[in-house]
Amino acid sequence: MIELDKLPTQLDERQALDVAYSRDLYWIMKKLETGVSVLVECEKQVIPYFYMNLRQRLRESEIRMEYLDGRMEPQDGSSDESTESSEGVLRTMLKQVKYWVRNSTDQKVLVLPHIDLLASQSHSESLTSEAREVIPLLYENPRVIFLGFQDPNFSMNKVIENLFPARKKLIGIDRGSLSGLITQSEAKKFPRGFNLQQVYQYVSGLNPVRLRQIFSRLEGLDFPDSEKPVISQLREMTIDSDMEIPIVSMENDIGGYNEVKKKLDEEILSVLRYRETLQDEAELAQVDPIIPKGVIFWGPPGTGKTFFAKAMATALNATIIIVSGPELKSMWHGESEENIRKTFFKARQSAPSIIVFDEMDSFASARESGPGASSSVNHSMVNQLLTEMDGFRKEELVFVVGTTNFVSSLDAALLRPGRFEMKIEIPFPKEEDRKKILEIYSSKMKLGLSEKQIEFLAHKTGEMSDPMTGSPFTGDHLYSVARFLKRISIREKKTEFDQKDLFRALRGGDAKVRLNDNERRVVAYHEAGHAVVALSLKDASPVERVTIDSDYTDALGYLKQAERENKYVFTRKQLLADLIVLMGGREAEHLIFQDISGGSENDIYRANLIVEDMVTRYGMSEAFGVRVQHRANLSDSAQKERDKAINEILDIVKKRAREILEKRKDLLVGIAEKLIEQRVLEREEILKFVDEYVAHKQA
Questions:
Q1: What are the contacts of 632-641 at 24+ separation with CB within 8 A?
Q2: Cβ neighbour number for residue 493 with a 10 Å cutoff
Q3: Residue 569, pLDDT above cutoff 90
Q4: Distance between CA atoms of 60 and 77, rounded to whole angstroms?
Q5: CA of 632: how far to CAs of 21, 369, 650, in Å?
Q6: CATH topology identical between 258-424 and 517-698
Q7: Nearest residue to 396 via CA among 456, 365, 354, 427
Q8: C-alpha span between 312 and 398 (Å, rounded)
Q9: What is d(CA 205, CA 488) in angstroms, rounded to the nearest whole number?
């Protein structure tokens, strides 16, 4: 607890710098006294105060400093001194460096406040003319001691960085220094008994000069009843323009996904709530290191990974910045790393904050060597990301969230404990999740859906798949359904929806595939082929429905199977069963019509993907063995072996599907004709039909 009477009564910027960085200033001074050049990474706003503070300290050691900022021409021994250079600041700085490098003594430190500008590198990898001139000058006299400053928003050439054996990064402040940076009059802007340490989370990324400017401008009555107005002022003055303050409630805006919410609350939010109750510095120091600062949200597209990050930010009263992985990458050397560095700098200044790297695998995929390996740009981006994450103070509330469809594709270094140690799956929504999501949309969009209608939509969307990708319905699909219903209500001035409206919304419009009798017959036998094969294999998932009704799907027909109990552990037999079922439609057409249609396109595509994974990822091919190799890394001979192994499996499952259908042709015909008549067969009807078929056979 910070006591009011122990706070300073007055405090200027130079004193604030000394309070915040006293140990660091002492460390820098000692390095310079022993003849070691130092590079300090800090904001340009504080450089003059650093210079004044160090100049005072070094005077006692009789060491002089020359501040080479381009404002004066170098002294040449004459009595004349020109003021501003007509050649520009950079050229004047270059002349100053040249003069003092060739005329300095052992008892002089050359201060380079803008070395990052003078020795900058363009994104096309070429050095500026000033940089090409200054680099040899800086290395010309090994006895010269330099004190350089680099702004975190600028990148610098490695050759220049190597000039400084000692480096110090001074961004933000330590929590322990906060009590020395707030005056008594400023503390009175908070309620009596308010724990000022709670303010740290909002100012942790500020430099002490900026912090003093903000606190000196706080307005309001002394000792107000609530701290919210003054906290609001702090947030307004600290948030970067690229940062967003989201308003997304974990409970009211995100339906379902109770397991995800529970994990976030238990692992992060509840710990932070407990942290806010602590006042003892020792207890805080124990809690800070255990808070996970890196989170991976992984799962299929459209399941709300970024939305969860926004809800997390709202729960933390944090700002958020969402950056697309592909947009971070640049063709120019160093620009990608600079983009990451700037993003972290903005987030630290706007803390508490969350950085979301969307599509993180686009730049942070597993680093490999050899043909097809990820690029050197990706390597350097991963290294920069690790550097920034490792550079946080443990008490800073800056969280990093990565979203990806495949967590296994990320670089292993990112997944180690202490970095992205929390990996949370955001899967396709279950039926109960879909119901909760639809309830939220119905309420927010004032659709007036009844409980029965919501249950109907939740159930039907579980049976449907995206016609373009074949994936199950996600929250995005449900939002699309709700928006369609809202447009119907506006366009047709409806306050209630009928079943036809619901089907239109599920379908996305009135466009409906109209099959003639011959086409319907082909589709019926195709879907019946899938069903008969699935019913005949013990390792296949149970059949739930088979239909040729396209009232609420773009598919001409489909077979719905129940989800397996073991979703994460699958066997070779199960995958072979899936393949045989996929081949059932094609082989049924061939058996009945002695021809095949283009309706098997998606079946064949999915089958090929499964087989390729079996061969090259899961080691399930006797012919190819247990080698796991990416396509780009295969030699010509290995490619031939792989293709041969894939063809062998495809031939086996195709023949097995044909054998089943030939043996149970009567059942195939019976189900197909029943489909033509009824269009939809549910599980109970199918099983009853099978029982009758078996009884007839036995008789």
A1: 632/371, 632/372, 633/370, 633/371, 633/372
A2: 7
A3: no
A4: 27
A5: 52, 11, 22
A6: no
A7: 354
A8: 12
A9: 49
Q: Among 3.40.50.150, 2.60.40.1180, 3.40.50.300, 3.40.50.920, what is the CATH number of 258-424? A: 3.40.50.300
- Where are the extended beta strands (E) located within 530-673? 543-547, 558-561
Read off the pLDDT of residues 304-353 as tens digits, 9 standing for 90 and up: 999 999 999 999 989 999 998 888 877 666 778 888 888 999 999 899 99
Query: CB neighbours (10 Å) of residue 551?
Result: 15
Q: What average pLDDT score do residues 61-66 get?
A: 90
d(CA 209, CA 43): 10
Question: At 473, is the secondary structure helix, strand, or coil?
Answer: coil
The token pair that represents 119 in the structure block: 């020795």
Distance CA(275)–CA(122), nearest Å, equals 45
- Token match 């086996």: residue? 652
What is the CA 582 to chain-centroid distance, rounded?
35
CA distance 252 to 437: 10
**CATH class of residue range 431-507:** mainly alpha
Number of residues assigned to the chain: 699
CA–CA gap between residue 172 and residue 397 (Å, rounded)? 12
What is the CATH architecture of 517-698?
Answer: Up-down Bundle (1.20)
Contact 548, 679 (CB under 8 A): yes
Where are the domains positioned within the chain? 37-164, 258-424, 431-507, 517-698
Q: pLDDT tens digits for 412-469?
A: 888 888 788 899 999 999 999 999 999 999 999 999 999 999 999 998 888 777 766 6
Measured distance CA(145)–CA(32) in Å, rounded: 7
**527 belongs to the catalytic site:** yes
Tell me which H or E stretch contains 488. helix 475-491
Q: How far apart are CA 234 and CA 228, in angstroms?
A: 10
Omega before 427 within 30 of 0, i.e. cis: no
- 3-class DSSP state for residue 26? helix
What's 34's DSSP letter?
Answer: T
**pLDDT tens-digit readout, 16-38:** 999 999 999 999 999 999 999 99
The rounded Cα 604 to chain-centroid distance in angstroms is 33
DSSP per-residue letters across 238-303: H--TT-B-----TTTTS-S-HHHHHHHIIIIIHHHHHHHT---HHHHHHHGGGS--EEEEESSTTS
Burial readout 51-73 (b: 16 or more C-beta within 10 A, e: otherwise): bebbeebbeeeebebbbbbbebb
Catalytic residue of the set 186, 395, 527, 587: 527
| 3-class secondary structure, 108 | strand
Which residue, among 191, 237, 195, has the nearest Cα to 215 in the 3D structure?
237
Give dist(CA 582, CA 534) in Å, integer. 9
* 329 alpha carbon, distance to own chain's centre: 14
Which residue in 176, 165, 124 sits closest to 32, CA to CA?
Answer: 165
> Which string of b and e fits 125-138 if b means at least 16 CB within 10 Å?
eebbebbebbbebb
DSSP string, 568-588: S---HHHHHHHHHHHHHHHHH
CA distances from 523 to 247, 517, 558, 574, 672 (A): 48, 10, 9, 25, 9
The verdict on domain 37-164 having CATH code 3.40.50.1820 is: no
**pTM of structure:** 0.72
Asked if pLDDT for residue 699 goes beyond 90, the answer is: no
Closest alpha carbon to 580 in 519, 524, 659, 501: 659
User: Nearest 5 degrees, angle CA 565-CA 568-CA 573?
Assistant: 75
Q: What does the pLDDT read at residue 80?
A: 42
